[in-house]
Each structure stands twice: as C-alpha cells, then as structure tokens.
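Two proteins follow. First one:
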Amino acid sequence: MRLDKFLKLSRLIKRRTVAKDVSDQGRVWINGRDAKASSTVKLGDELSIQFGQKKVTVKVEALTESTRKDDAAGMYTLVKEEPFQKDDV
C-alpha cells in the first residue's frame, strides 16, 4: 500500500494530499529511511512521522483498502512519542 494512502486510512493524517506533502518534505521515515508518498508500506514496518515539535513512531499492524473510523486505530500500534530534535534523523 502507498504511504500516503496508509497515513490517510489509518487517520494518522487527515487528508491524503497533506500526507503526500508531509512525505515529500522529508518528515516521514519507514524503518529509519526517508520515505516519499509513493513508498510501499508493509506489515511490520515502523513509521516515524514528524508533527511539528514531536516525532511519533508507529508499527504497521494491518493493511486494508478501506476502513471505518472505529477500526482505523487498529491499523497501527504506537511505539513511542517523543520531542523531535533536528539531529534525530
């Protein structure tokens, strides 16, 4: 599944266009590597996303083509949430 689509379906980011922009700005990493919007997300991958001054790391638990709001949180598990420092990358 494409990264931007996963971020939108899991509701980590509200809109797919915003997910694309965030990814293309270099604020998303898959397993520690820079990721673009078209990068492929697989089960078990760890995604790190920079939201302003914090960095959220989640583990991909499910990939579904469509999801309801109640089920979206089941697509990932929160691994950690920490303040973002520029040298973290």
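Second one, unrelated to the first:
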Amino acid sequence: MTSVGNQDANFSVCSQLAREAARKGCKMLFLPECFSFIVSCLQTVVVAEKLDGPIMSRFRQLAGEVGIWLSLGGFQEVGPDKEHIYNTHVVLSSDGTLVASYRKVHLFDVEVHNGPVLMESRSTAPGNQLAVCDSPAGRLGLTVCYDLRFPEVYQRLAFDHGAQVLLVPSAFTKLTGEAHWELLLRARAVETQCYVIAAAQAGKHNEKRESYGHSIIVDPWGNIIARLDNSLATGIAVADIDFQYMASVRERMPIGDHRKQGRKCLGWDAR
C-alpha cells in the first residue's frame, strides 16, 4: 500500500485489503510499517495513540468483522515522553484481541547516498524486548523494517523462541530497497530456515518520501513463493505456509543442531 497523511484514507485501504484477503481464503493479513499514517517525524508524534486508543480500536473491529487475523506492521504508539513515540508492530486475532506487540529496536538514522536523510531516533524511542506469538500462520517472530539488517534478532527469534514465520513489515527507501531488500530477506530465511513475510510500503507518499515496495514471501529454502508486482500500488500477495516442507528442510540440513554444537565448541552460551 501507499500510506499518506490521512488516517481515514489509510484505514479505508487497509479495510479493502482485509476484505480481499478474506475473500481469497486467507487466515491472516500482513500490513506494512506505517500502515495507518506516514508524513513527517513531528506529525507522527502528534498523531500517536495508546494501543487501546481509537485508531487501534477501528482495526480491532475490522478484524472481528472480517474474521481474519491482522499483523499491523508499525503503529505510532505513545512513547516514553512528549517528543518520542514507539514504532510498534501489533498482532490482532480474528476476534480483535491484541495478541502481541513489539516495539522496534533498531532505529533508522541514516543519510542515504543521493537520497533522503532519515533520523528516526529524533521522534522514536527504541524498544528493548523481542516478541513472538502463535497464530493460524504458525509461530510468528515480530520485527520492523531496519531490524532486517541485524541477523542475530532473527536467529534469536527462530532458535531461542521457536518462530516459524518471521515478519518484516517495512517502508524501505527506494535506493536501499533496490540494493538490499530481496537479498536480506532471502538471507534471513536461509539462515533460520523459516518463512519470511515482508509487507512493504510502495510508491510516493508525498513530495519528500518514496518507498521501494516489492512485498514478498520467502520459504525456508530461500525461494520467493509470492511477490507483489510493484506497478500495483495497492494489493496483496498470497501464499500457503507448509510446515511439512519446513520440517523437511530442517531435517535435510539441521542448522539448529549444528548451531548449538558450534557455540559449544566456541565456548559461547547454549543459544
């Protein structure tokens, strides 16, 4: 999707996508970072709400009406002070219950070469805990966007917390997306032998900001099994999660066991 600075307009798009997913028989829909709002850092702070506020209540109602689980990839949650929010990934069940939340740990403070200067820490405080939850799509490991560049997060989610599906909702810049988006997502899948679901913002949100798009789903062998054509600003890519296939990949190449052995040889902890 291409979020804008109008929460009502963004909710309308999310509602459309949820209903389309339900019509296609999906058990769960994964929405990208900034699904409800995207403009400037200062405006982001102004619109921040608590997780029991009116915006999240609308999405809880939507989940219940449509009968589908929702991964809400990056919500502007009220932060620790007046100047900062939390960038929070929320999972809702099909009856609207808040099942899990994760506050983004790694903040994007980067001057993109020949691109924008983005200083997320000016308006966002980092979280300090990992999050997993069970869902109809399997055991989910929650992350957000820039976390993708830190593989130890995904290894901890998979090997320590039993995640089967790693979520990477994002609003990647066009330049960094063209260089590294698919490469990093496939690497995280291969390293952990998990499915990776990466819902992405796409296109121009305003005069100053553009996102790369290319939402994809990757299987535990690193194959892309669903991809959203980037010429479509709004839409969904659909795939099945096959736990037998995941088990066969892990049986043929038991990375988890070998990881434990390697850490023991190196004198590291059992993780």
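SUMMARY FIELD: The radius of gyration is 18 Å. The chain has one domain: 7-265.
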